[in-house]
Amino acid sequence: MTDWIDIGTLADIPPRGARTVHIGGEKEIAVFRTGDDQIFALVNECPHKKGPLSQGIVHGQSVACPLHNWNIALKSGEAQGEDKGCTPTIAVKQEDGRIWIARPEMTKVAA
Amino acid sequence: MEFQGGSSPVTDSGDDIGVPMEDVREHLVVVGNGMAGCRAVEELLARDPARYRVTIFGAEPHVNYNRIMLSPVLAGEKTFQDIIINDRAWYDDHRITLITSDPVSAIDRARKTVISRSGRTIGYDRLLIATGSDPFIIPVPGKDLPGVISFRDMKDVDAMLDAANHGGDAVVIGGGLLGLEAAHGLTLRGMKVTVLHIMPTLMERQLDEAAAWLLKSALEGRGQTILTGADTAEIYGNGKVEGVRLKDGTQIPASLVVMAVGIRPSVALARDAGLDVGRGIKVDDHMVTSDAAILAVGECVEHDGNVYGLVAPLWDMCRALADGLTDQHSGYKGSVTSTKLKVAGLDVFSAGDFSGGEGCEDIVLRDASRGIYKRVVVKGDKVVGAVLYGDTADGGWYFDLLKRGENVADIRDLLIFGQAFASGGGALDPKAAVAALSDDAEICGCNGVSKGQVVACIEKGACSLDAVRAGCKASASCGSCTGLVENILALTLGDEVQSGPKTMCKCTSFGHDDVRREIVAQDMRSIPEVMQKLHWSTPDGCSSCRPALNYYLLCALPGIYVDDQQSRFVNERMHANIQKDGTYSVVPRMWGGLTNPRELRAIADVVEKYDAPMVKVTGGQRLDIFGIRKEDLPAVWADLNAAGMVSGHAYGKSLRTVKTCVGSEWCRFGTQDSTGLGVKTERMTWGSWMPHKFKIAVSGCPRNCAEATIKDFGIVCVDSGYELHVGGNGGIHVRVTDLLCKVATEQEALDYCAAFTQLYREEARYLERTAPWIERVGIDYVKQRIVEDDAGREALRARFLFSQQFMQDDPWAERAAGVHSDLHQPLSPISIAAE
Ligand code: SRM
Ligand SMILES: Cc1cc2nc3c(=O)[nH]c(=O)nc-3n(C[C@H](O)[C@H](O)[C@H](O)COP(=O)(O)OP(=O)(O)OC[C@H]3O[C@@H](n4cnc5c(N)ncnc54)[C@H](O)[C@@H]3O)c2cc1C
Ligand code: SF4
Ligand code: FES
After folding, report:
1. How big is chain A by its Cα radius of gyration, in Å?
2. In this structure, are residues B613 and B626 in contact, taking their beta carbons and an 8 Å threshold?
3. Taking chain A, what is the end-to-end CA distance rounded to the nearest angstrom?
């Protein structure tokens, strides 16, 4: 069973931009909107040195990390090109103009 | 047989409305006399004309008409008569009972009857719900005023035509297909139309940014005003519509408001009857709802999680439905939709997933002179999506390749040129195709250069793309023939082709200088426009070209170009420096390095109030407050603003600091007021965006305590005046400045500084500091422009000061006042649903 969490509307996220969202007890999540209004969610941490991906430049379906410019695929969380590493992804759905994310299970911050 | 609504209530299973008693066939009752409902009946009759007795209820007063054609009716190209699909004779011939103007208001599933608004109760054996969609009305004040109309049926068209007859202004809310069709029709009917669209680009569901930009330009060319990112706050008027007010306060007067923001499946009837309803009425592959006796079809249904808003899928549904009703169950498998539309007379096409993404490759063809944009998205050798604008002839072919999952590896290079080219003549190698061209064949349409001329140019010694561009102009304008020229180079020279200077990035074949030149020459005004006109090979660029283009446009169009925040690096978007832990550092401006107790107190207060872990004196003579959380930035800025401080731009490709020394005011060696001049210089230059960061210093004597000779612009005061130095750099490769000249007065020092800064702004490449720029162009060139050419210097200075009028707003004050507050706050989760 998946818990879906309503986090707002498309208009809440700037195109080619991102917003963050905190779900109690979990790592911060970055919710991205691409130029053509697709939504993706990743843990807001670059696989390189935990740069806040939500602050990067979104282009196509990637985001360039603001700290050292690694490019991360929004769909898979994988670093692209020569760089290796992966950020956990979170399932998203858009329904009736609202954005829902699946309650992340795997990112629990160790108590 | 036809019955109008409003007659006295009748309660029976239909025999009292003229159907012979002896008709004992199963009774199929259809709710909705629209496109899907009637098509379903047609499909059924085609399979077994005798099997069911059919009754259709329609809420509208008409026979079945083609809803798609309402747009041409509005535009005056067709009449209602032209768009009727089934006339009265059809209903009569098939002994179908049609009840118009009388919507069904309830279903009694236990008794298998439907009840209409006028009170008719009619029994059914099978019920088909085909109620279509309801226009979505945005819940703003004034939505119910007379003069606010949706665009769904003939009644709406009549109301619009009536309004258009009185002339005046119309506002269309919604820049999707329907809104644009309405706007087009009303424009043709003589109204002055403004389209309000909440999204940044038109028809964002069907078109990518590039195609949407082309569409917007074309519509604006026809006199419509199109406002994107426009959020409606209110429709105002006294007793009738008088205009629309946006959330940003803009008011647009209008006597007619068309609301075309979207549709919602019409499910109320089904929901009230207790059927399973999600976004639409849930149906299985045979269009059967959660009640085995009730079917549903059309826009009102949800199949396998999907709802559809175009007719093609509805036709598939109707076939499966009729098969099911005649016991030849085939099953509906869902539809892949493509959209081929003439929006306001302009051809657009889109299909599949054109969002690109991982593993996807975009093949883009842009023909600026003919206004054509084509993009095919290929993944794993298969076409997965396409967007076409201007020339949609190959839409069907791409859609076919997509649906069949055809392997396109062999025709990959020619795919974008369309079916005729890709599958014709076996010339599958682009080089061979170019070799086969005659010498007269035109290669570069913009500059009229033939293949023969390109070859001649190469034979005269041009060994690179750039040399060809310089030599005969081929591919020097829009760049769409770059591939052809490269092939001619390869054919003529083999391995001797030299690669030219670096292109801006992998998205374009042009270098920085070419792009800047063309932006000015062609008066380009937005990032999508540059990408279209210069044939970008990616749909929306990358993290290296977007910031560069944003800067070039900003520099070329002061006061006109609207900055694109999303094309800026985080520091410039957040107006603070990001740190390794994701917090920010804040550096307020201290003019010329001067400060006072009030500012120091405000900084001390901020450090305490927001628990900043560190505050430090920087190498640029400022105080840097570290460890501020993104959420706290606006409040920090408000506190600093209150003490009179503005952004220090320690984060920007912009003027950073003007360092000064104490100068003649206090210092025993000082020759001039270096502190005062530094403050004046900083007041003049602050806020300007540059290709890279730009630092200035003013030293009061040649001892040079302000390190002016490693700054981008350095002033060293001497007894007889001011030595002006340029192109210095600390940092990784230390470079000492070149002496530009010596001037006698403070005013001249300021004027030369403004002129030099503007020359750098206009001519350096993005991310090129003054030091490498001067190494590239030579100090003599800079001297010639700034020192020897008095009129030129004056013009540069004037352009700089003009542009500064628009730059010197404190970005912090704006943010502290709440602009872009969403950038600082996380989203707040609203509700949780388990499934
Ligand atoms: C804060 C400061 C160090 C300090 O505590 O003193 C500083 C801090 C940074 N410098 Fe610097 N530089 C600072 C003065 C300097 C100076 C000295 C000066 O301006 O007189 C230099 C050498 C002079 C020069 O620029 O030519 C300097 C040469 C650099 C360079 C190398 C530039 C180059 O062209 O080679 C970089 C890297 C870059 O910009 O690409 C850099 C980059 C940076 C960045 C922005 C690194 C980054 O991208 O995060 C640091 C930001 C820290 C922060 O969050 O505030 N910083 N940096 C100084 C801020 C001055 C100010 O008040 O605005
Ligand atoms: C202006 C316009 C242009 C369009 N252009 C295109 C296009 O170019 N291409 C394309 O593919 N699609 C286009 N569409 C969409 C297309 O028209 C619809 O997808 C199609 O009409 C849906 O068919 P339907 O039978 O589900 O709904 P409808 O055609 O809307 O039929 C539903 C009918 O049910 C009636 N009804 C509702 N409730 C009740 C009730 N309780 N009792 C009795 N009757 C009821 C309604 O009055 C309506 O007549 C366009 C739509 C519009 C409005
Ligand atoms: S510039 Fe010269 S006069 Fe001024 S402080 Fe430095 S050494 Fe002293
Ligand atoms: S932390 Fe993201 S690139 Fe280094």
Report:
1. 13
2. yes
3. 24
Rounded to 5 degrees, φ, ψ at B718 are -135, 170
Question: Residue holding tokens 């990743």?
Answer: A42
Q: Which CATH superfamily is domain B571-647 in?
A: Sulfite Reductase Hemoprotein;Domain 2 (3.90.480.10)
Residues of A in contact with B829 (CB under 8 A): 5-7, 21, 23
Which residues of chain B have a CB within 8 Å of the CB of A49? 580
Q: Among partner residues A4, A31, A71, which is closest to B835 by beta-carbon distance?
A: A4
Class (C level, CATH) for B655-804: alpha beta
How far apart are alpha carbons B40 and B32 in whole angstroms? 11
For ligand 1, pick from B624, B659, B660, B775 the residue to mutate: most ligand atoms within 8 Å of CB.
B624
One-letter amino acid of A98: R
Which whole number is the average pLDDT over A22-36? 88
Q: What is the dihedral of CA B454, B457, B462, B464, to 10 degrees?
A: -10
Token pair listed for A103:
């309650």
Tell me if A33 sits within 8 A of A39, measured CB to CB. yes
Alpha carbon nearest to ligand 2 atom 53, residue: B152
Q: Which of A9, A12, A55, A83 to mutate: most B Cβ within 10 Å?
A: A55
CATH 3.40.50.720 for the B338-496 domain, yes or no: no
Q: Inter-axis angle of helices B790-807 and B746-763, to 10 degrees? A: 80
Residue B785 structure tokens = 């422009």
Whether B148-261 shares its CATH topology with B338-496 is answered no
The domain defined by B148-261 carries CATH number 2.60.40.10? no
User: For chain B, how far is it from start to end, CA to CA, in angstroms?
Assistant: 48
**Vertex B368, ends B365 and B373: CA angle to 5°?**
40
pLDDT of B357: 64
Long-range contacts of B151-154 (CB under 8 A, 24+ apart): B151/B70, B151/B178, B151/B179, B151/B181, B151/B182, B151/B258, B151/B259, B151/B260, B152/B67, B152/B263, B153/B60, B153/B67, B153/B70, B154/B60, B154/B62, B154/B65, B154/B70, B154/B73, B154/B80
Q: Where do the domains of chain B lie?
A: 2-133+265-325, 148-261, 338-496, 512-568, 571-647, 655-804
CA A108 to chain B, closest CA, distance in angstroms equals 17
Which of A7, A59, A75 has the CB atom closest to B827's CB atom?
Answer: A7
Residue B433's pLDDT is 66
Which pLDDT score, from 0 to 100, does residue B9 have? 40
Q: Which residue has the tokens 């839409």?
A: B395
Average pLDDT, chain B: 88
Question: How large is the average pLDDT for residues B539-562?
Answer: 93
Instruction: Tell me which CATH homologous superfamily contains domain B2-133+265-325.
Output: FAD/NAD(P)-binding domain (3.50.50.60)
CA triple B165-B170-B175, angle to 5 deg:
130
Q: Which of A16, A34, A89 to mutate to test the interface with B (most CBs of B within 10 A)?
A: A16
Lowest mean pLDDT of B389-393, B496-500, B772-776, name the range.
Answer: B496-500
Which domains, and CATH codes, for chain A? 4-103 (2.102.10.10)
Work out the angle between the directed axes of helices B465-472 and B482-493 (0-180°, nearest 10).
Answer: 110
Percent helix, strand and coil across chain B, each rounded to 5? 35, 25, 40
* Torsion from C-alpha of B723, B729, B730, B732, nearest 10 degrees: -160
